[in-house]
Amino acid sequence: MPPDEGRALYDAATGAAAGLGLPLLEIGSYCGRSTILLADAARRAGTVVVTVDHHRGSEEQQAGWEYHDPELADPEDPAGRLDTLPFFRGTLARAGLEDHVIAVVGRSPVAAAALGGGGGGRFGLVFIDGGHTDEHATGDYESWVPRLAEGGLLVIHDVFPDPAEGGQAPFRVWRRAVESGAFAPESECRSLRVLRRTGPGC
Ligand SMILES: C[S@@+](CC[C@H](N)C(=O)[O-])C[C@H]1O[C@@H](n2cnc3c(N)ncnc32)[C@H](O)[C@@H]1O
């Protein structure tokens, strides 16, 4: 992207982020050059940019085509396909903008259907196995469980009723779900608990 286009993109992103305060969306992260422009605009407005890419390159970036860069080929890939994800991550890290970028690695229409409009943005299963502090486990619960569809499954890992067996944050989240009245027990296996959503709330 030439500098004047980059400036135009940055100006547009700055205006949009400041005006609405909503996350920005990019399709085509590649090695992160445009992403850092959007991310800096998002940072200034206290929001983030969500950027989608399968990181295997567009048609014109494949071997034998005009915009092919052999340095971007994945040395571990038997077919020598591109992998721009490490370069993308390096760009963000060097720019100090990692906290303002949510990278979605996948095909654009599939990501849109899962996360965005067109009936997307609802999940049939939410598996909570992230940070195990109260702050993170509760944050995961409150952030994602509202997106769990009725009839869907809430699965929580590392649920230990006995503190001698393990940390209590996942247990507290599981108990909160049970006590909410919005879930019914479905099954359990050691520390893995499965609940089914039977009504709204969490
Ligand atoms: C022209 S590059 C993006 C350049 C980037 N915006 C910049 O200015 O630095 C196009 C990117 O789109 C990605 N891409 C192409 N088709 C895609 C698809 N269907 N889903 C997700 N990513 C795709 C490719 O992997 C490639 O990284």
TrEMBL record:
Q: Name one GO biological process term.
A: methylation
State a single Gene Ontology molecular function. Answer: methyltransferase activity
Q: Which top EC class is given? A: transferase
Q: Which domain of life is it from?
A: Bacteria
Q: Which Gene3D superfamilies match?
A: Vaccinia Virus protein VP39
| SUPFAM superfamilies, A to Z | S-adenosyl-L-methionine-dependent methyltransferases
Q: Which UniProt keywords apply?
A: Methyltransferase, Transferase
**One Pfam family here:** Methyltransf_24
Which EC numbers characterise this protein's activity in its record?
A: 2.1.1.-
This protein is called Class I SAM-dependent methyltransferase
> Whose protein is this, by species?
Streptomyces boetiae
